[in-house]
């Protein structure tokens, strides 16, 4: 299958290059190390579809007459998507000529989006069919999908097949057959709004960029030690005390705005409210929730490297659970379509708990002995609350690998690895174990894109971008020891951009185009794995993202077009693609 | 300059396991930014707690009646008025005046009437001793003094360049105040730079950088008192310089015609830099790093394999007189386009393999009596180039290889050290009596996870064994952001605030060197950039600025 694919892509490429010079290019780092790999067609889609067959000849699009329509009437998802894709089809500021000199048979007239279920779904679900087909034949195109979410994937791929030729015509292969589906159903991106505040316009651009790469889950890390930007209607003191400032908050309207922005793009928004650790900001609003840490018999004493003066939630206090029940109910109501809440539960070290006499008494009274018992107590309570309000739970792996028995059905996020924590086993160990025990898991350990490094990956006769090579080559099942059933429980992965060193100044350019490498790993067939070829396609995709206003940074030397950042025709900061008032 | 390719697969610093703070430092305000403290730190600064209110409708820049003045000063007044009172609209104002016209006027939060009881600072009197020079130079005096102790403040300098530095400091010590709107404390500053050459290298060959982005970077440089743009304008990958004499080079050698600098663009950049007291030192690197030049003009060495030319090209071909005829014409043009006394001639990383393979070059070696020592051929080439450029009246800067290779250069040559171990090289080059620049420890393209500004901050150009005379020969240094993985999408956020380190190292006193002490000031300066519209990225872990960057 993929052979067919490569074959056709390269034929199309030769053809296209023959007539229309490609408008972007990557080039070597050093003259004596020329780039290896097959140059890409200017309209190669990213991530690469499972099956793609395209003709050699082109057909053209007349912006004044071309229409996209769907078989659903008054469906916001499809209607708004069709509207949204207009500036993606016809990038503002770039010249597109009408193909008036061509005969009608060389003009694509329309594309029909056909949703077989005939239903206008409201919100994407993990188990939805995300597949789609595209056919283009005899001047007509068709995107078919079981549901609107597959259709959005199809529309995105279709939009990527369009390209502007050097003589300014908008073209696409005259005959196209694509059958496509994702390798993993869960393709997430974690953004951290606590370490630095990410303004709403930046979040919206991040979500746009996700949709250009077929990511479908926005994991929104909304609270941590550093700040609490989420405005709660029930507990306004959370942001009054816990936010960096009154300007560094997401109002209920902002949050709905983000959820809706993502939903319309087929992206779920899963909020994370981390506890019982990482709660310093919560503790500024509710100091009584935190545990007094002791040094001997003196309360509120830090023993640095072991514990702070006060930290982590005091699991013995009933008012904590009363708060959590009310707050999580508000979260559930706020993220009303999303079944999951991410409850954190990572990095709880029990030293503070165990230093506290009240907790020591609690342990004794309840026949408990250690931190794991306390964590079991806490997670039982919190997972019970989540269940009672009708929410499903995601947690980081920590309680589970500390020995807490989590109910099956809890989704576990695997983040630990030897590369992050020298004493930890590798992530493959955790992944094999959790899936074999029956948990659905999401893998983020190898995809910490907040970690940056400079580098060139050198082979004997070529040089590549090291980071791209690294992310692109991650094999999610490397050293996996589970059986086939366990394998299926790896539902996907998350690219994480923790926020210590990113904010509105750099989060877009730091994440993109690097996160696109991961996107292809999660969507495309396992045998789409040649980084030397992929770097050329990825470059085409980077330029595409620039045309869509995303300041995606380069992975190699080269150029895109007259629309690069800072140029007169730059789409970066264009009002159509940025969300500034 | 490229370091040899090394497999840099270093694990990032592991301090934040889950992207999280290390245990024991849960205090979110690890770094509390300073208020109204300048970066780089002045040589001497004394302040008291006495505050003056500064209000946009009751403040004026004045030129002292006995002072020299010129257009540079009056346009700086316009800029700094806006920087001080309307920083959020400043950048559009200088980069995109059309866009700026549509911006809403920002009303001051505090009206003048609210300040009846406050002591107002009403004017800054500027006094410049010498007539304005047109362009800054390596010899320019940038010292100034600033006194704020009444309603009339005083800024004194010898040259216009010192006045520009003083205005920048003045704009930085004014801060937003809840009660006064804008305020400044009673302050006495005496200031001058420790090093005269404080540079930034920008590489526009590996990726084209739009003029607008280059201007934003020049503005950012001025806000940290950096004064040299080392414009690495061409290289193997592309030749974006549109030559008047040889327009065919960029026609063939630029990525495409959207990726070129016209003569107008260049003139605009030089003027933008001049307004800020920044020199533009252009680099035309040869004989290596010239693949893009050769696409239009037959000046490169034809490489041979198996006794035949193999369609590959090496460095410039020194065996042909036509090569030097070409360079004479090109460099004479460049000398007239770029007003700075110095031109950077490159000279780094020459690969001898192609020369070795070419029979004409071999014959030339024989004729010249070079034997098989190709470094003699390199020396011969560079000797010709420096003589050509010397004849235009210009001075030149070269990468260290030229000196390592024993080329005879003019006495005023500036040698740029980029290789490790740099202390030995600095010792060697200064012993030979040349003025020297350091860039080895300031390769900003080498990114790593975490607060890497500290590493740059710790590097000092006087960190070598040498006499006082030798130390004096070190004229400064440069932060280099090579362009392999950098274009206009990330140039500014990668350069800033990391280049703050170099700025302070090269301006402030040698004993201003404790990063823990500098950090709160660094944080204020970072947020100052964001407020002024420059996307300087967070470098010190979790934090926030009053104004966040949202575009």
Explain what the structure shows.
The complex is a heterodimer of chains A (581) and B (551). In chain A, a hairpin with a 4-residue loop joins β23 and β24 (463-465). Chain A is 33% helix and 19% strand. In chain A, the strands form 7 sheets. An 8-stranded parallel beta barrel of chain A has the order 12-13-14-19-20-21-22-25, surrounded by 5 helices. Chain A has 581 residues and is of the alpha/beta class. Mean pLDDT of chain A is 93; it is low at 1-22. Chain A folds into 2 domains: 51-180, 2-Layer Sandwich (Chitobiase, domain 2), CATH 3.30.379; 186-563, Glycosidases (TIM Barrel, Alpha-Beta Barrel), CATH 3.20.20.80. Chain A is elongated and about 90 Å long. Chain B has helices spanning 71-85, 87-95, 97-101, 160-173, 211-222, 247-253, 263-275, 321-337, 353-357, 359-368, 374-391, 401-404, 422-431, 453-458, 468-473, 491-495, 500-507, 515-531, and strands spanning 44-54, 60-63, 123-128, 144-148, 152-157, 175-177, 181-191, 197-203, 228-232, 279-286, 300-305, 308-316, 342-346, 395-399, 414-417, 435-438, 474-481. Chain B has a domain at 44-191: Chitobiase, domain 2. Chain B contains 18 helices and 17 strands. In chain B, β15, α13 (422-431) and β16 form a beta-alpha-beta unit. The longest helix of chain B is centred in the C-terminal third of the chain and has 18 residues, at 374-391. Chain B is elongated. Chain B has an 8-stranded parallel beta barrel, surrounded by 5 helices. Chain B has 551 residues and is an alpha/beta fold. Classes of the chains: A alpha/beta (581), B alpha/beta (551). The interface between A and B is large, with 92 and 69 residues. Chain B: Disulfide bonds join 70-132, 303-354, 527-545. Chain B: This is Beta-hexosaminidase. Chain B: Residues 1-19 form the signal peptide. Chain B: Residues 38-173 form the Beta-hexosaminidase eukaryotic type N-terminal domain.
